[in-house]
Amino acid sequence: MDYARSSWCMSNGDDDPADASEGADAADDAEEAGGAGESTDAAAAPTLPDEATEESLNEYLDEIAERLDGAETEADLDDIEALLDDAEAGLDEADLPEPDEDDEDADDPRGDLEGRISELRDGVEEARGPYADDVVDAIEAAASTLEDTEWTAAGRDDAADAVVAFVDAAADAVDDEVDAGDIGPDTVETDPASAGDEAADEDRGDGDRIDDLVEALDAVAEAVADADLDPDDDAETIAALLDATDDLEAGLDEAEEWDDLETHEQLRAQGYYDVLGHYKDFPVEWAALKEHEARGNVDMILLALDSLQSDFMERHCLEAFERMGKRGKTEASVEKMLGRAEKRDQPAIRILGKMAADEATETLVEYVPEGSNPQLQKTVFKALGEIGAAEAVQPLANQLDPEGDTEELVRPHAARALGLIGDTRAVDPLADALAEDDSDDVRAAAGWALRQIGTREALEAVAEYGDEHSFIVSTEAEKAERALDEASATA
Q1: Cα angle at 106 between 100 and 108, to 5 degrees?
Q2: What is this structure's pTM?
Q3: pLDDT averaged per 10 residues, the chain (length 491)
Q4: 3-state secondary structure 80-114
Q5: Nearest 5°: phi and psi at 257?
Q6: Where does residue 115 rank: exposed (0-12), middle (13-18), buried (19+ CB within 10 A)?
Q7: Kind of pairing, strands 9-10 and 178-179?
Q8: Hey, which of 79, 353, 393, 457 would disulfide with 386, CB 3.0 to 4.6 Å?
Q9: What percent of the residues of the chain are helix, what percent strand, and what percent coil, each to the nearest 5?
Q10: Which DSSP category does 13 fall into?
Q11: What CA–CA distances, in Å, run from 107 to 57, 92, 97?
């Protein structure tokens, strides 16, 4: 699809000498009728007494209202604005009775007159224009709608048709004021196959096609702005252009947006259900989800997560990502899970761990000292361990301190996370926990972590507890002893 940019330009032909002569004759007639520099209308303008009264002000405003009814040009409206200024000044100086504050129904001459002046000013504003600027503003608003809206395929075609119709109508409306050149519906293509090189057109994305439509509208707006259309002399042209922009706006309003579709229609349009040969499970969205998980279609699982708002489908989408682990890691999926993790969403934190998404380390480390939420801490510790986040070693080691705020049930998870990370900087704090913690669960977890680190120093720190009264601690010591023996045998 190739939308050609409109080539509009201002028509700058010389003025007709006959028109200039007629203008000079008209000026001479005006001078004779009302004096130099004074129009016949200005000579007939109403006057306000120096000391205005309620009656004289109302009469003055009656005459202004009559002039407003008969106003035909912007100059007429400017004169009326000046008369209203005089009326307002006269009202400020007028000595009018004040209403009785204790009587809600008392007359208020000043307030009534102020109301009349305000209504007349509104009438002047309503009578002004239309202006070329109004046309430009309407075109720019339509261009913004085109850019900011997510269209369906059918909606994009309808939007393009609306732009084509507008460009054609605008070309008809401007006539001699703007040289329309070859502009018309054929210059804004909506069929890629008719735009020239089909192979090249197929490579053009939807965004490029919208850009071309916007470019065509910008060209019309620029041409209208450059034409310097006069609100009096070119009133019909401006009105026709505004009618065309109204039709353009209506066409865009009627064009189909993604938000207009039901969720299942959006999913169908984006190929979510294409993986199903037949529906095996209910709901069908779940059946499709399982197939997408099996095929590793991360984008489709994200689509379902964003589109399907039920708790049931949200849970299954997240579980699919958790099962996929690293296979489900893409830039988009990590970004999605990080956004949820920043809201302390524990399923998302678990998924980031399974993905080994080191991009999440900075966010998760912030949650390590969250002593008021032990369940969150457990989830975060495990995720950091699965990620292998070296940056988390010291924060996790701090959680081993039995004198700290970390609960006894949480400290084993900190120890295991350190074992998963495998950083030798954790050997000393883990050995201290093994030696000093009152909880056998914490000590056993520290022993397991030291075995995962696996250096001789780490294994020796565990092996010395072979005679420990706690079975789970002595079991870790025995495994460490065997590991040392195996290392010696192979040395």
Answers
A1: 85
A2: 0.52
A3: 39 41 44 41 70 88 88 84 90 86 80 91 84 91 89 85 91 60 42 39 58 90 88 86 92 80 74 74 81 95 89 92 97 97 97 97 96 94 97 97 87 97 97 95 97 96 93 96 91 69
A4: HHHHHHHHHHHHHHCCCCCCCCCCCCCCCHHHHHH
A5: -105, 160
A6: exposed
A7: antiparallel
A8: 353
A9: 70, 0, 30
A10: P
A11: 16, 18, 9
Helices 411-421 and 427-436: crossing angle in degrees, nearest 10, is: 150
> Prior bond to 283 cis, omega within 30?
yes
Instruction: List the chain domain ranges.
Output: 45-127, 132-259, 261-326, 329-490
Helical axes 132-148 vs 206-227, angle rounded to 10°: 170
Q: Is 188 helix (H, G, I), strand (E, B) or coil?
A: strand
Structure-token pair, residue 264: 């299942």
How far is it between the farthest Cα atoms of the chain?
127
Other CB atoms within 10 Å distance of the CB of residue 381: 29
The number of angstroms, rounded, from the C-alpha of 230 to the middle of its chain's C-alpha atoms is: 38
Tokens of 249: 């706006």
- Residues 6 or more apart whose Cβ sits within 8 Å of residue 155: 255, 256, 257, 260
Tokens of 452: 């995962």
CATH architecture of 329-490: Alpha Horseshoe (1.25)
Name the β-bridge partners of 349: none
Cα–Cα dist 476/490, whole Å: 21
Q: Could you check whether the bond before residue 185 is cis, i.e. omega within 30 degrees of 0?
A: no
Distance, in Å, from the CA atom of 211 to the CA atom of 297, rounded to the nearest integer, reads 30
State the Cα angle at 217 between 212 and 221, rounded to 5°: 145
- DSSP label at residue 151: B
Find out whether 192 and 1 touch, Cβ atoms under 8 Å: yes
Would you give the end-to-end CA distance of the chain in angstroms?
A: 71
Question: Residues near 12 by Cβ (< 8 Å), separated by ≥ 6?
Answer: none
**Which residue carries 């709901």 as its tokens?**
283
